[in-house]
Structure formats: C-alpha cells, structure tokens
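INTERNAL TRANSFER SHEET
From: sequence group
To: structure group
Subject: LexA family transcriptional regulator

Please process the attached sequence and return the structure record in the designated field. Keep the field labels unchanged so the import script can parse them.
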Amino acid sequence: MNESLSQRIKRLRKAKGMSQAQLAEACGWKSQSRVGNYEVGTREPTLADIASMAAALGVDQSELLLNSPAPEPTAAPERSMVDLVKQMLAKSGKGFSEEARRRLLAAAEEPQPSNVIEADFSRPGLVGDEVWIAHYDVRASMGGGQSAHDFPELLKDIRVSPSHLRELGVEFEEHFHLKLVTGWGQSMEPTIKHRDPLIVNINVREFVGDGIYLFVWDDLLYIKRLQVADEEHFEMISDNPRHKDRLIRRDMTYIQARVLLVWNAHLV
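Return from structure group:
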C-alpha cells in the first residue's frame, strides 16, 4: 500500500476506533487540531510526536514511519532505531537536507531513555537558494464553497526561490510555511482565475488584516477576501462584481491560511 505518513496516521486512528480529539487527548495535547494538521499534511510530526501517537494507537513506531506494517516480533530480529531511521530516509527522505539527515542519524545513535528522538521534519531540503514546497490537491472555492478533504493528496513538489518570492513582495517568515493549493470558480476574477494555483501561508491561522484568505465557513472551504464588518462579523468579499458579498460570523470562520501569490506571479 503506497500511503503517505498523513494517510497512515488517519488509517491507524480509525482502525483503533478513536476520534481526532481522543487521539490528541491520549497524546497529552490540548487540541485536536494538531492531529488534524498531521492528517491533512499541513504539518509534519516530529519523531517525538510519532512516538506519542504510536503509543496511543498501540502500534510500533515503524508502522507510522515506514510504508509497511510493523514486523511481528517472531518474524525478524528487532530493528534498531538507526535502522528504522535509515529505512525511513531511504523511502521518504528525498526532501531532507544533508544536515537534517546527519542530525537524525546522530540522534538515533545516541542512547534514548524514553525511546523518543526529537527531530524537526518540517523544513524541506535546500537546493542552493531553491526549496521544495508541497502542492496539495486542495480545491478551495471562489464561489459557493467546496467540501474540505479529510486529507489532501500531495500532487507534487514545486521548486521555488525564497529570495525571488520576497523580491516579488511575498511576505513570510519561513519557507516551510508555504504550500500550493488551487482556486476553483470565478468569483475572485480577475484577481484569481478558475484553477489558478496559489501560494498560501499556513502559518497564518487568524485574521491579521484585510486580505485574501483560505478558510472554512459553514463546513465548506473558501478563498475570499475578508474584512472586519463589526465585532461579530467578517465581510466575505468577491472581486468579481457579479457575485454578492455577504456577512459571516467571525466565531464560525476558521482561517486555514492567507493567500500570498497567484502562481502566475500576481501578488495578492
């Protein structure tokens, strides 16, 4: 089975009969959104978090790290953490830099009293000034709303230059906060056209000023311009004058990211 890490987390959670909230609670996390982010692939878990989830789900860490079920104890000799990390890097570590690989292997070789290795999986490997950002199969509606995926499929990685993006006026702190999604519909024309790929900043999870956001409202996923209307409402604005603007409750609007750039280099 060719599964991503996010798909394995969700499959094993469901097989255990646990909700996202129950898994988060079993791991000692305050919010189920952490599990949700791991399952949609907007964040990569550290090995410490993988260990916590494996313990809560009653599986070996290798069953989450590797794209195959964990071996039965009698089927093969127990593999060391170094072997597991090497196998994980061989299968899924193409985007890791040499420095990240070295740190992971060094951490795996050190004695681990709690059998947990702390590591940061969130930074894609650098290629000169260029970095890889994930293009996810997320279609956010610029019309009547799209049903949000339980987990998005990773279509491919896109190579970009952070310095060039900043020269274009794109503002972000870290390149690994950037993802690519697809706009769907005509309500944001001419700013964003139907099927335009969009660079978004997933580190922006709340309203930070007038702009175009990727957000969930009424259980549907939208890309629209948001402005504060009053203390209780946002104004959801379409750039296409043929589509009506509307007021939506702020406490029922869940911002997922801020839209920064249309892939045709049109800054928003």
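Handover comment: The CA atoms of residues 59 and 70 lie 8 Å apart. The longest helix spans residues 5-16.
Transfer complete.
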